[in-house]
Design a protein that fits this description.
By secondary structure, this protein is an alpha+beta fold. It has two domains: 77 residues, no CATH class; 94 residues, no CATH class. The strands form four sheets. It has a four-stranded antiparallel beta sheet, with helices on both faces. Strands 9-10-11 form a three-stranded antiparallel beta sheet. The N and C termini lie far apart (43 Å).
Length: 188
């Protein structure tokens, strides 16, 4: 993917006519996990070489384009089992309790699942869900990914109330992580 192709995708996902490139040598220099970063007003996007993307309303989420890039690289490297550059300290891992792949370990979340498994969460009936922080002050909200009225328009009330979700038929919990974000853990 070229920078121009990535910019076209950034305009599409950010809903903006004008996007400014944010050049990051580490992001652009990683042929597997990298890509291009763009800013449009208070929003940012990373468009991956492999076609994936991540967006953020930077100020509202408390991020900068730099932290969005760092998060993208960490998540992609973890997903593809690629070691971080030697300049970054090694982070402890544990096997994902669903698939067994290494996932970043946090003592607070010893049964957390890997990003790949977390991307497959469903409700009790098997409908895919997406979990988010409700706002800057925290909170947790979940939407159905396959809502007939459009993506992220139908609230998954039962998931919010119970904190329960399933991955490949395995019961898990889903909720707000202590310092922001969402955490999914397998129930023993």
């Amino acid at each position: 993917m070229t920078r121009d192709e990535a910019a076209a995708k950034a305009r599409q996902v950010l809903g903006a006519d004008d996007v400014e490139p944010h050049v990051d040598p580490e992001l652009e220099g990683d042929p597997l996990c990298g890509g291009f970063a763009f800013v449009a007003g208070d929003s940012g996007a990373v468009i991956g070489y492999r076609g994936g993307y991540q967006t953020s309303v930077l100020e509202l989420s408390g991020e900068t384009i730099e932290t969005l890039v760092i998060g993208w690289l960490a998540e992609q490297r973890h997903q593809y089992g690629v070691d971080a550059p030697a300049t970054e300290p090694a982070r402890p891992t544990h096997p994902c309790p669903i698939c067994g792949r290494p996932t970043v370990h946090q003592d607070r979340y010893p049964a957390s699942v890997c990003p790949d498994c977390a991307s497959r969460v469903t409700d009790r009936d098997g409908r895919p869900i997406l979990g988010y922080n409700e706002g800057l002050g925290g909170g947790f909200i979940a939407f159905y990914a396959d809502s007939p009225t459009g993506r992220q328009t139908e609230i998954a009330s039962e998931v919010i109330e119970t904190g329960r979700c399933w991955i490949d038929g395995i019961e898990c919990t889903i909720g707000e992580a202590r310092f922001g974000g969402v955490v999914v853990e397998r129930v023993d």
